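Re: Re: token formats

Sure, here are both.
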Amino acid sequence: MKKIFGLTFGGLQQKILNLVLIFILAIVGVYVSVAVYQSKSLSDTVSEASEEQQKSINSASNETMDAVVAASLTRSAEMQAYIADDMFSDVKSDVLTLQSFATALFNSSYNFNSRPVSYPDPANDGIATAQLQHEEGIDPENTETLGLISNMSDVMISMFNSSDKLDSCFIGTADGLILYVDDRSGSYVDENGEIIKTFDVRNRPWYKGAVEKGDVYFTGIELDTSTGIAGLVCAAPVYKDGELAAVVGADIFLTSISDYVRNSNEQGGFICVVNEQGKVIFSPQTEGTFNAKLSNNAADLRKSDNAELSAFVTKALNEPTGLETITVDGTEYYLTGSPMSTVGWTVINAVEKRITRQPTEMMLDRYNSINESSAEKFERGVDRSRQTLLVMTLAVLVLATIGALFVAGRIVKPIERMTNRMGILSGTDLALEMEDAYKTNDEIEVLAQAFATLSKRTRDYIDQITTITAEKERIGAELELATKIQADMLPNIFPAFPERDEFDIFASMTPAKEVGGDFYDFFLIDDDHLGMVMADVSGKGVPAALFMMMSKILVNNFAMMGGSPAKVLEQTNAQICKNNDEEMFVTVWFGVMEISTGKITAANAGHEYPMIKKADGSFELFKDNHGFVIGGMDGIRYKEYEFTLEKGGTLFLYTDGVAEATNAQNELFGTERMLEALNAEPNAAPKVLLKNMKDAVDDFVGDAPQFDDLTMLGVKRI
């Protein structure tokens, strides 16, 4: 590079000048060429160009509108279906909670006392209240279930008050009683002012439907018996020892969905809802195919004479449809559908196709007007351009040269100074300070400030890295120590009882985090009795590990005091409930084996079913009686049961982390795969059985992350 008269030739300054001059000359040349070409050919090509542009605009506009409509309608249908289905899913979850509590209630009736219940009282109108009704001819006082279901009152009142979706929740018994919670006590008074006490419980559609299905059941849309408002009921059966004991459920008023759908009818588009029978149940249309009618009068669109509509509705009830064009009642519609999996309905979004073509027509009209006006202006502009082109070219070249020299100087000088300063920075001097030469009020100043900030941050970053590294090493050491402490709390030396040849026992625990909430334990209570524990604490990490240690110590201590399995669980539950402000809980299976005979006495506090192999058979799932979880409720009593572990037989215990291990496709490992893994070598030693199970789970899960602890225990009688 050389400097002549203050200009740097061969450097950035010359390059900027050359670039500006080349750019200006190129623009002038292109402008002249285009102007000459257009002045000669405009009259011959304007008509053809206009026609081609109209076709292009029409095609591009239609394609764009189709894409916009497809994306908009599809997203809208999916979102509307998701919002509605979320409401039904929440209600289903509430009903499953009632079913779970009622099942525990009926199967552990000896743990509950009768509580007072009353008929509807208009004075309670507006207050969530538990109320009793019954079938004609039924005397509630002579039934077996009145005192038992009265224990559902607090649960249902709490559920009703905490949900903005429930209009009532209830339990109807197999002997004709119904206990329900709502805030409409005043609606249960007849025209004579008498309180309505009778209710045809077992003939209601929700009762019959839940009993027939044997699972969660959604009714069709019905009018509420007390308010006359349209709604539906979600119900589920409750069984005791395989026999129907009751049906629990919840009412949902559908006023919000009805109002939303009714208000969707505008500008040629609307929303309608089709139930699982293919019938339109909500629609703003007052006539035609999409008119909503009562279920008995509505037509099944899946059986419509319109084959395209029939196929579309059938598909929409099972999966998102994407955008489809279908003619209905003489009108061509864009249709999309998205199902609501919980109730089996679907949301259909419809818009008339002609509406989407209006923007294209308006655009073409506007284009023609603009094109004609532009052609006239262009002709006049070309004439003026010819006269001023030469003068403008010379003026632009002169001004561009002067401006380029000035700008190049302002750009190059600060950069040169910054480059020189950065060149003398050393390993111990990383600071680039702002100077007046860099304050150019443009990107150069920003660049200089960035370098100055970067140099400061570099020094700060080195200090922070040093501090953070030390802190991470400290935390890692503490977690490693916590993992070792937890592992040392569990029996981990095998063989555990080398002097005993009557049985072989092995156990393992693989935590999902550094420390986990699962635990196992086994210990000799005396020379002829072996205690075995398998438990799973709610939650993960350090809090669960601390709760695990406390639970393990309590179970072990109470067991060593000679209590029966049921008594040990009751004492442990009572002790934990005294100081359980965090409301954690633990599921526990505890059994005691009489070593000489193989007789096992056990009790189950909400834990997984054990798996047992007889001497000459294969592993099978043993469905024992479940009690409530430890820490969930004070005063719970537990039942014991007995079975004999034959010589050559094996008992396998585990936590839900095994059965619920999930692969990348969100599939559960499940008990069937567990039985397959155990029965691959059913007569193997417990250590081999646990290794086979762990290998099977690892192969199934693959690269998917482990979300729960894997804890297993096996004991084989020899």
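Second one below.
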Amino acid sequence: MTSTRVAQPEVKTKVLSKLPFRTGTAASAVWQGFAGSVMLLLGSLGVGWLASSSVLIRNPLFIVARTTPVAVIVATVLLCLGAALMLRGWLRLRQHLVSWDESSAPVLKKALILWVAPMMFALPLFSRDSYAYIGQGRLMQQGLNPYTDGISALNNYFSLGPDTLWTEAPTPYGPLWLWLEHFAVLLPASSPEIALIPFRLACLAGVVLLAIYIPKLAARHGFNPHRALWLVVLNPVVLINFVASVHNDSLMLGLVVAGLYYASSKRAILGILLVTASIAIKPITLIALPFVGLLWAGSQAGWVRKFGIWAATLGISTAVMGIMGAINGLGFGWLAALQTPGTVWIWYAPIGLFSNIVGFVVTLLGGGGASVTDVIQGIGQVASILIVMVLAFWKINLPSSASADAGLTANAGSAFTNPEAHGESQRYSQAVLRRMTWAFAAVVLMAPMIQPWYMLWLVAFFAVTGVKEGWQLRTVLYLTAFFTLIALTDQLSVFPWIPVVLVRSVAIGVGVLSILYVMFWDKKTRGLFVPSREPARSTTA
């Protein structure tokens, strides 16, 4: 998946004529996304997550919104239509800003602000992880070890609002996030929602970091920074999962992208420190460390220098993590908790689905199906580690600058000309980070559990190393639509006396129909998913 750069303006014009381009104003797309975000806010009042100990649950507005079946169904419909409208606004922005020149920047910034602002005030949507953060902070407050004790060790833990799936599990997070969790529960408040404020601000900081460094890293590799900003940061799956759902992957990803930018810009120590800070949020970004070492070593490094740099990179990161562990008294306890997410599976994860189908068949035949499932999942994890090692150790052969330039074809979707991007340093950085992207992809795709926000890691890394127009971009669009739909049909907070089957059926029905409408029936956006030879043109948004 390598992107392309514009070589000659006249070729660019020719390509533009083949795109599913619609005339109109980008402002209409911006306000569509804003309206969708407001609808998500309103929908969260009825089916967003509230802890049973929250004072808001006794507020008359919330009582009506959450205990009346009609109100709950209306809130569910608002969520589905709001998400679909955000998706449509995002797609329409791409059509209006297809040239991706400097005039795109203020439009994209305005869209980002307007789309994020309403969701900052929404109740947590589609996930209760933010309430698990509070529970883990309570563990820290009471002197318990969150790497060995689950939230269930707390008295009245259920009133904090965490998902029961995780109440017995140790935390998979690093020391930096544990400190934030501890700080959050020290805030004087009578409602858990006040404790959520630090987590929301941390997730917002992650989005801001992405908005700064995704364009910078894309531009360093010769790709259009505005297109990268649109593709990643304004992606509705990013905003829904990072802002509305309050997932700490936002800060984790923002820090690792910032670290990769500095590592690729000859500021390796700063890069290592930022990536280490990312590891201290969620340790999965350990995968990035060997590739940061390759960036530090440079394209001309031999094996002696590479191993020396790898040792130095690991040493710096380990020392920083060791200091953090010494301060909080938990050491490297997070290493044992790395397997926590692997205890569950989901149907759209290839390894998860395959292992459980095989295990089910073996059980039917009288065998030990659970053991077979575990073995298959273990093989997948080992294979992913081996793939990461191969990608890190396999020699990188760079094409010459001349051959690289000769291979570039004009492409309006990645129209960006950067003379420096043809240098060896930039081409090496792109090659190393593309290797790293495939390493993350291997770990994600070979895990039994794939959360929607895992896709966002890959979208970010692929975007800064090149995503072509055509099937590559279309793949991202399909994944975005799919994971938007997955969010809508996932976790909704519904009181026991309200028929949950009815509410979930409404979510599935309205969600599927609205997303499919945007993908295949809307005359203005369907060409992005099923391109026609002569796309229809429109003068309105």
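Residues 1-23, 402-417, 534-541 have pLDDT under 50 and may be disordered. Residues 115 and 391 are 37 Å apart (CA to CA).
- S.
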